[in-house]
Automatic annotation (TrEMBL):
<dbReference type="Pfam" id="PF01547">
    <property type="entry name" value="SBP_bac_1"/>
</dbReference>
<keyword id="KW-0813">Transport</keyword>
<protein>
    <submittedName>
        <fullName>Extracellular solute-binding protein</fullName>
    </submittedName>
</protein>
<comment type="similarity">
    <text>Belongs to the bacterial solute-binding protein 1 family.</text>
</comment>
<feature type="signal peptide">
    <location>
        <begin position="1"/>
        <end position="28"/>
    </location>
</feature>
<keyword id="KW-0732">Signal</keyword>
<dbReference type="InterPro" id="IPR006059">
    <property type="entry name" value="SBP"/>
</dbReference>
Length: 430
């Protein structure tokens, strides 16, 4: 199995779109679906798609489409938007592409993806597809990018380090993490300053919101709302009184401090279990050391608790999948897409702990461990960022990362909230 690294599935760069982008529509690059045979290029991002799924896709596609070949080209999350913008607007575009769920609308709204017709949508899963991810890939009432997989967040811990029952409420979670804290030595919870993904549940659970669209189409940000301030206050409390993480740190390679035995609670996408459970001595030079025989062998998880109990509303990371508008093999690309959304392929993804694109396959995620059960429980209550193509600009300009770093450094909560709202509204309404 491919060892999955934690990736920021919503990583974004500058969203300046090429002027040569073609208009939206279901037509393929040559207008008739492309040649009957040819090479289909599939761009997958990062290492979250396991080798078993990649092998299944290639073998099945080539068996079902005699005379054609399928090539998988792995891309990096860093700089993804800029690379896609150039490639999808050019004459050598790939055929099928994976994209972060919060990046999807930036491409759909600019005509980079081929429309999925109503008939195709039903054949690919229809109402069984994850609704939030369908919405993220829609534009002006049409489908362009469909769900690929979701990754809910859970709170990981080792009973060797935390001898306590999982907290029942969000307030109890905060107090327990603070009680575990030993300044400079042990973090009750690990919270790098730039980590905004784990901040959103605190905003939502306290009744706040990121941004909402008014009837006149304008956006209003909500970090300065009563619930937003309450959530930011709890976040800062954890950053200052429960975490030894760098004040300007990023949410990368979280398994490293965990494997050093310096963390009580680690809130992260469920696929980080594979990095924690990697061998202490990686098999490859670029592999990241895990702690399979120590804390990894005694790894537990629970769904972040909500304000009043139950699972909190957490951010749903994950990916969408789409056919490039300029694909020279639109019909063949669609055949590849069918395989990737088939029950067989999606069950492979579910088998390693990813939330499959189809609601009916959620039971395929192993739930015989606390990690699997926590992931499914959290996914059922997960939420997404605002559905606007300009949200990618918010990420690209590191608005949230910058302001949450200020929180981690102890700056005034209300001022940070006001600055967050002003910047977000300026971008979304610009």
């Amino acid at each position: 199995m491919r060892k999955n690294r934690l990736v920021a599935v919503t990583a974004a760069a500058s969203m300046t779109m090429a002027l040569g982008a073609c208009s939206s529509g279901a037509e393929a690059g040559d207008g008739d679906g492309g040649p009957a045979t040819g090479e289909v290029r599939v761009w997958l991002v990062g290492t979250d798609t396991p080798d078993e799924a990649r092998d299944y896709l290639k073998k099945t596609f080539e068996e079902q489409n005699e005379g054609s070949t399928l090539v998988i080209e792995e891309q990096a999350w860093d700089g993804l938007v800029d690379k896609y913008t150039t490639a999808l607007a050019g004459s050598d575009a790939p055929d099928v592409v994976e994209v972060g769920n919060t990046q999807a609308s930036a491409f759909t709204s600019n005509g980079y993806f081929s429309e999925i017709t109503a008939e195709e949508f039903e054949e690919l899963g229809g109402s069984d597809l994850l609704p939030g991810f369908v919405e993220a890939g829609d534009w002006e009432g049409a489908h362009y990018a469909l769900p690929y997989y979701a990754g809910s967040r859970a709170v990981f811990y080792s009973p060797q380090l935390v001898d306590a029952e999982p907290p029942a409420t969000l307030d109890e979670y905060v107090e327990t993490a603070k009680g575990l804290y030993d300044e400079g030595k042990f973090s009750g919870v690990w919270w790098p300053g730039q980590d905004w993904y784990n901040a959103l549940p605190f905003i939502w659970e306290n009744g706040g919101y990121i941004a909402e669209q008014a009837d006149d189409g304008t956006w209003e940000a909500g970090f300065s709302s009563e619930g937003g301030i309450a959530g930011l206050t709890q976040i800062q409390d954890l950053m200052l009184n429960a975490s030894n993480a760098p004040k300007d740190g990023q949410e990368t390679d979280l398994q490293v401090p965990f494997c050093e035995g310096k963390i009580g609670y680690l809130s992260a996408p469920t696929w980080i279990q594979w990095s924690i459970n990697a061998p202490e001595e990686p098999e490859t030079e670029d592999g990241v050391p895990g702690c399979a025989s120590t804390y990894g062998g005694d790894l537990e998880a629970f769904a972040l608790p909500g304000k009043d109990g139950g699972a909190a509303q957490v951010f749903a990371g994950g990916s969408n999948i789409a056919i490039a508008q300029k694909s020279e093999h639109r019909d063949l690309a669609y055949e590849a897409l069918k395989i990737m959304l088939s029950d067989e392929y999606q069950s492979i993804l579910a088998g390693i702990g990813l939330i499959p694109a189809k609601v009916s396959l959620a039971g395929e995620v192993p739930q015989d461990t606390s990690i699997g059960a926590a992931g499914v429980e959290a996914a059922a209550n997960a939420k997404l960022t605002p559905a606007t193509p300009k949200w990618a600009d918010v990420e690209a300009q590191t608005v949230l990362q910058t302001q949450f770093t200020r929180l981690a450094n102890g700056e005034d909560v209300e001022q940070v909230a006001a600055d967050l709202d002003a910047e977000i509204e300026s971008i979304l309404n610009g």
